[in-house]
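Bola-like protein (Terfezia boudieri ATCC MYA-4762), 115 aa
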Amino acid sequence: MSLRFLRQLSTMATPIEDALRQKITAALGPTKLVIHNDSHLHAHHKAMAGNTSQETHFRLEVTSAKFEGLRLPARHRLVYDLMKEEMQREGGLHALQMKTRTEEEDRREEERNKV
């Protein structure tokens, strides 16, 4: 699946989702980027009381050659660093759940799922 197609899956993009897509694309040149807005699943949490944002919790799937040679914590730090501004903003991004893979890891995962 091409990156262009995955972008088209999200027809209701929002400012933080747009920032995720733009910053990750610019910095990591992903071959796969899937963004899920799971904010509605967390709206009832105590930490979200009084927060009117619909963009607090996201799940990402990112495949990039930039992850080569990096362990999982370093990959996640790389993405968190990109989104620092959005995470520090009042009522902004609260949580990111990530699957970060190299192209080879993604290929192996797809092969496992075919079986």
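The longest helix spans residues 15-28. The chain has one domain: 3-114. ok done for today
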